[in-house]
Design goal:
single chain; 326 residues; alpha+beta; Rossmann fold; OB fold (Dihydrolipoamide Acetyltransferase, E2P); 2 domains; 9 helices; 18 strands
Length: 326
Amino acid sequence: MELLRVSGIGKKEKDVFTIKNISFTQQPFQKIAIAGETGSGKTTLLKMIAGLLQPDEGEIIFEQNKVRGPLYQLIPGHNGIAYLSQHFELRNNYRVHEILSYANELSANTAFHIYKICRIDHLLDRRTDQLSGGERQRIALARLLIGSPRLLLLDEPFSNLDILHKNIIRSVINDVNMQLGISCIMVSHDAPDALSWADTILVLKEGKLIQYSSPEEIYYHPLNEYCAGLFGEYNLVDPENAMVIQQAPGNLPFGKKMLVRPERFFVRKSGAGLKGTIQNKWFMGSYYTLAVAAGEQVLNIKTTDHTFSCGEEVCLSLQDTAAWYV
């Protein structure tokens, strides 16, 4: 049975659609990420799903019941759907346990289990004005979870966090899904987090859904350059170089360019393949990035081999499945 069905959703702003004809479904426990450039409509879509904004067309069905927006109910929102905004607020000059007690509908033991999942059980006696941004975020999340939602909507949960608090909230979100069995939809600008976390990714551009697939499919087989760029570095290989790499002259899709992720190249000191010269080399921690000049273009290559040097000639090749055309 579907948890959520979004059908033909549209939203206007000054008579212009900012969200247009978006449809998708979510199964129980499925994790969906929404990606897109700033202004593509991600937050607007999330707020409509939460019942906080009224769609101008289409409908949203949650647990077989229509989600009603602010035009149809006095208090916006839906009891089974929790929305954590980027701009969450906590009252100042309160103890954390006071803030949480006002929203709690659970037994003390069940609530404390949620506090442990959110990594805030040690903060319950702290005053709200003594908390870091990451701690305040997890308390705001716990306050939502003690309302027993079945769907959690997260709007940019990793933004403005240092690496320590980012890793903590990443673990918390995973535990919310795994231990509490709550389905999640997350908006994120962070490509590694979306790719590693989501079961399915929706890519929005100018309010339209342009790709809806698994993380692997979107990363390796993006619909276009826009989708490719949202999820990391890529190379668009000139047709002349593509024919050499593929070793299949005249057998390339007409009017399209070969798209290759930097880590998909085989780079060797000799052998068959596209010849190039290393112009630059950067140490990136767990790998090196090489800028390789090949003909009229420069390709970015990732490798774990530390023995390559600037000015050295190399040969580039690909696995049969490594190339994609856009």
